[in-house]
Amino acid sequence: MLKKFSLLMTFGLAATAMTAFATPVCSSNVTDNGSTYFGGGYSCTVGDLLFSNFSYTGSGTNPISASQITVDTVSNDGIGLSFHAPWSAGAGMTTDGTIDFTVTVLGGGSLLEDFGLAQTSGVSGSGSASVAEDGCGPAPCLATGGSIYVLTFQDSGERQAQGETTFAPVNSVSVEKDISVNGNSGFATISVVQDTFSQVPEPVSMGMMGGGLALLGLVRLRRRAKA
Known about the structure:
The protein is built from three helices and eleven strands, in the order ααβββββββββββα. By secondary structure, it is an alpha+beta fold. The radius of gyration is 22 Å and the shape is globular.
């Protein structure tokens, strides 16, 4: 039985390694690499998370294209992606953008149970800047109006806003961000929008690990008894 458990663990690790090897590490800190992310069919990994199904739509009187977005990876205090672009609008102008993607835990062993949103923005006069985020899981599912998560930031001054939410653990989530900037009679801008994801051990994996440790303990006791 101990050998079977070891084989299962080995096969699980091998499957995870093969998936990670087949998918490139997410492009990071490359000027305007948004064209890569949102060009269609791109998927990549950060740690044990797979990011895929990227899409972006820019609109408003001053739309920002995907080629103007730079994407960075985040691996401290959660794993995620940070999107940088000049979403800005002067008096009488608007800039809107929608970012969608899917996050999947590779190889099992853990589940997603928390994700956070942060934005950096500036507003003057009657300008306004906001980011609304929706999510759902497990993917595939429609993130718009998703049941897992809804978070909206509305800035009325130069500051960084952030928050997070916890939900029932799932192995994958679909996420959508609606970035909205309105100059009104003033000025507004959003320069950074960041998502991070946290995980918890999967109950089955915890059970397997506990069972494996118990078997190892039993083997040691038998060896001592024979000695």
